[in-house]
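hey can u check if this looks right to u? its 474 residues, i copy pasted from the old doc so theres a chance i mangled smth
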Amino acid sequence: MYVGIDVGTSVVKAAAFDGEGRQLAVESRPVELSLRGGFVEQDMAEVYGAVVDVLGKLTARVPEPVELAGLTGQGDGVWLVDREGRPVRPAISWMDGRAHELLDQWLADGTFETVFRRTGGAMFPGSPGPLLAWLDRYDPKALDAAAAAVYCKDMVFQRLTGAARASTDVSDASMPFMDPRTRTYDNRVVELLGLTRRRRLLPPVGDPITTGEVQEGLPAGTRISNGPYDLPACALGAGVTEPGDGLLIVGTCLAALVATTELDLSGEPAGLYISTDRHGHRLRAMPAMVGTAALDWVLSTTGVTHAEVDALLASTAPGAHGVRVLPYFAPSGERAPFVEPRLRAELSGVSLETTKADLVRATCEGIGYAARHCLEAAGLTGALAVCGGGTRSPAWMQLLADVLGRPLRIVEGEVGARGAVLAAADRYGVSLDAGVWTEPTAIVEPDPGRSAYYSTGFREHVERLDVARGRAGR
């Protein structure tokens, strides 16, 4: 069997697949996030312990020989480790907002745009550049004690394999220090962010992805590869490799990815280009902060359960009786397809006659409009696959197809873990049929009448958003 490990922000998962890509079993374990005053951190020991735990439970359930394993995980943030890969301090999550004042300064003085024009990466508060600069200013002893500033999966890989030093891959390294043309760190960007004396903390980039042998969690000697991180891993797992094709991940954040062989560093700085193991092939990514977390907040606030969502969506018409939601609930603002750290959610058109169904539909429509905004900015021209927790709601997927005005290739299961296995197989020269592994489970066609209605709604959404961005930027 083949094992994919996906170290998510709130849940760590391990999935077993057979040679035809059929998912045999999944084990998962939640991990805690510490949220306080805009600071979002994680206990690295807990995260690593969860990885070992789910791997042990998975191999106990499916006691077959493990051909190889692929590792993926959440991107961005800062995971400071010593030479053995053990934590120097708690990991800082990609959701963290502490560095927003630094980012505001870089937005104002042109540093933000200069970095984007060099790397194709639009920094946001939870990306490594702002976070390392914040640590250098406010917690320099942590940087002094660290051997490397890595990403989530890199810490796990070093611990699982006992590697002598930390390393990362081209996908994680894409934000914000790597030149996508040379696939090496841009030392001028390091200098612009005031981090020259911390340059030693940037880990070597495995190109192609680094491999090793597992020492715990799986049978000793199991071959494993490190990467790509979760967004490009999901693209692989959904079969998104041809230029123009795209993937929408409807998860905690809403990530829009489009495969491309082009590199356009003009236009409004937003999103990033994610390098892949295929030289010259990239993903134009617009990973928004908005996502299922916005709907979760509305559900918890109104006392509605996830099981009720489909029925509520069916009970109210498109347009939600005039209720509109700009679904930018993240405390760190928005990062794609624009960067505005101070943007917040807005609800309008609410009255005493507004129902819970109206609020739920308006939120789902708002998230759909945000998805369309991201996909258009990313350059979608081909087929669109969709994965993530949101796919469990058929009514929401139909609404999303209508808002986007295009068919959706629904890909269910552990898509990131599946992509990690396909990346590992390619790295090791193991022949797996990617077409079979990435077959969609369903295709949702849009309704022409509702799509026409939502095209108008999308234009109105963008107009309201422009006004809100103007207020937030004052």
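The CA atoms of residues 327 and 345 lie 5 Å apart.
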